Amino acid sequence: MSGGARIRAAIESARANRRPALVAYLTAGFPRLDQFGPLLRATDAAADVIEVGVPFSDPMADGATIQRSSRVALEQGVTLRWILDALGGLAPHARAPILLMSYLNPLLAGGLTETIRRAAAAGVAGFIIPDLPLEESPGLRELARSHGMALVQMVTPVTPDERIRALAAATDGFLYAVTVAGITGGSAASPGEEQRIGAYLDRVRSLSGGAMTCAGFGVRSRAQVRALAPHADGVIVGSALIEAIENKQNITNFLTELVSTT
Amino acid sequence: MTTTILGPPDRLAPGQAATELARLLAGDYPDAAGRFGPFGGRFVPETLMGAVTRLDRVARAAFADPAFRAELDRESRDWIGRPTPLCYAAGLSRAWGAPVWLKREDLAHTGAHKINNALGQALLARRLGATRIVAETGAGQHGVATAAACARLGFPCRVYMGSIDVERQAPNVDRMLRLGAEVVPVETGDRTLRAAIDEALRHWVSDPLETHYLLGSAVGPHPFPWIVREFQSVIGRESRAQMIERTGRLPDAAFACVGGGSNAIGFFHGFLADPRVALFGLEAGGRGPGLGEHSATLSHGRPGVLHGTYSMLLQDSDGQVIETHSVCAGLDYPGVGPEHSFLNWIGRVRYEAVTDREALDAHAECCAREGILPALEPSHALAGARRFASANPGAVLLVNLCGRGDKDMPILAREAPMTGPGGRP
Ligand SMILES: Cc1ncc(COP(=O)(O)O)c(C=O)c1O
Fold first, then answer.
1. Is the entire prediction scored with pTM above 0.95?
2. C-beta of B402 in contact with ligand 1 (< 6 A)
3. Interface ipTM > 0.90
4. Which atom of ligand 1 is the closest one to the Cα of B375?
5. A156-175 confidence digits (pLDDT tens)
6. Among B271, B263, B218, which residue's Cα sits nearest to residue B242?
7. Catalytic site residue A51?
8. What confidence tens digit (pLDDT) does each residue in A21-43 have?
9. CB distance from A108 to chain B under 8 Å?
10. Which of A30, A205, A208, B348 is an S-S bond match for A69, by CB 3.0 to 4.6 Å?
C-alpha cells in the first residue's frame, strides 16, 4: 500500500469509530535522543497518523514552542540521518503511518533524491514541507510518489477558492487545513474564532474534491477538538503535545483524552 | 509555472555564461518563477503565497506607471537628496597609486543606500493598501530608513532587531525610536540579522493581509530580490553617468560590499553590460576562513534554501544554517541574494572575502586621507579596492561608499580604541 493510501485508511478507520482522526506532531529527539523511541511508541498508542518533526535552525512558520523543541533537538545533535536511522527500527512496528515534517533545506542537504530514497527505506509514508509551495512542488511530489510516498499540501484561511481546489487535487493522504493565518502554537481559539474556523473548514471541504481534511495549528483542548470535529476528518496537534512532553504528562493519555467523545 | 527538483546548479557549458548574462540583461530574469537561472524562487508557507503574488503584481504595475516613477523621483530628490555625489578621493588615490572615485551613498538621507529601497517599498505599501509595516534590521540602517519612510508616509512601523545588534549598533536604535518606530529585540536564534528576518517573517505569516514586510536587502522570496534591486539600481545608473561626465570613461573596476547584497546589486546593474568593467563583491571574511568565523557566503557556501530563496548559504552538512561572524552587523548574514549567486555562477562578478582587520585598516585610512568616516560595511569594499590597486597600479577604481560610520562608534571603540586625548587607534 502506498503511503498516501495508508494515511487515508488510518483516517477512515478513526471516522468509522465515530471520532475525528488524530494526527500528532513531535520533534524528533526532543527532549533527549533516547526518548525518541519511547515517545514515538506512546504517541502511536493514541494517534492515527504521526508527524515526525525534523528540527531546523530557522523554523519560520513555527511559534515559540516548536522553536524551543527544535533548538533543544539540534543541541542534542539530531540530524535527518539520525532520524531516518531511528525510524528504520521504529516505523515497521508502528501502527500509525509516519510523515516527516521538515523545512526544505535539511531535505536538500544530503541530495534530495538520496534523502527520499532513504526515507522510503526507513518506512516513512510521506512528507509535509511548510516552505515548499505548490508551484515549486511538482518535482519533489513525483519523486516521492515514485517511492510510494505522499506529499501533503496545506491550505490556509487566506487561500483563495481556486487555489484550494488546486492544492486539494495535488495533495496525497489528506489536505492540511491550517486554522489560522499564522505560525504554530497559537492559543486556544475563542468562541467567535470557533465559528470562523468552522465556516472556513466547511469551505475547504466543499472545494476539496473528496480529499480528506485535517485541521491544525493552535489545537489544544478537547472542547476545541469537539468544535472542529463536525467540520474536518481529523485534527492535528503539535505545540500542545510538545508542551505535554515538557510537563512530563502521560502522552498516550493526553492524546486519547483530546479526541475521546465520551 | 513549475520548476524541477532542486539540486546543485550544473556546471556551465561552454558559452553558457554569455547566454545567461544576455538573458539577465534582456530582462528575462527573474523569470515567472522568480528565478535567476537556478537561483531564487519563492519558498514560503502557503499563508504568504497570496502576499508575495500580490506584491509582484502591484510592483509591476507601479514600475510601469509614470505617476509612481514621478513620485519616487521627486521624493528621491527632495527628501533623500539624490543624486548623491561622485567624489574623487585624492588622498587614497595617491596612497594606492590608482585613481579612486567614491559614490557617496553615505550622503543619502539617513546615511546609507538603504533609504532608496525603504522609500520605494513604502510607496508600494501605499499602493498595496497595507496598514502597517514591519522590517528587520542588522546594522540598524535599514531600520532607520524604514522608520523614516514610514514617518514620512504615515505608516505605523515595527522593526525586529537581534539583541546582539541592538547592543552593538545602539545609536541607530535611538534614531529608530525617535522616528516613531517600535523596536523589538530578538532573543531567539543567532540574535543577529538572520534571527530578525525569521521573526519579521513570522510576523508577516501572522498578518499577511494588512502588513507589508519591508525587507531590507536583495534576499528573501521573489519578488523581493527583484524589487530591492530595482529601487537600488539608481546607484548604478547615477554612478555610470557621473563617471562618464567627470572622467569621460568608465572605471576599470568597481567595488561594493555584499551582505544580503542590495547596495552591490543596484550598483553592479549600472555596469553589467560593460564587459570591460571588472566587478567585485566584497564579503565579510571576519576572523578567517574557518566555519563560523566569517560571513563570506559566496566564497565558502553551498546552495540551499533560507528565508524563502534558493541561493548560496553557509550551512553544515545536515542543512542547518550556521552562525556567522563579522565585525560589522550589516554583513553578518549566512545567506546572500539569489542574483549574486547567479552572477557568481556565471563569473560576471568576482566575490572575495575581506577580513575584519583589513576592513578596519581601510576604515582608518579613509578617515585619515579623505575626511570621511565610512560605515564598516563599505570599508570592506575599500579594502577590496586597495588590494586590487596594489596588483593593478593606475587602474581607475570606483567604490560604492554605501553608508556613513556614525552607527559604528560603539564597535570602533571596542575594536580600534583611541588611546586617549590625542591618541591614535
Ligand atoms: C551601510 C551599509 N552597507 C551595507 C549593508 C549591507 O547590506 P546590503 O548587502 O544589502 O547592501 C548595510 C546593512 O545594514 C549597511 O548598513
1. yes
2. yes
3. yes
4. 1
5. 999 999 999 999 999 999 99
6. B271
7. yes
8. 999 999 999 999 999 999 999 99
9. yes
10. A30
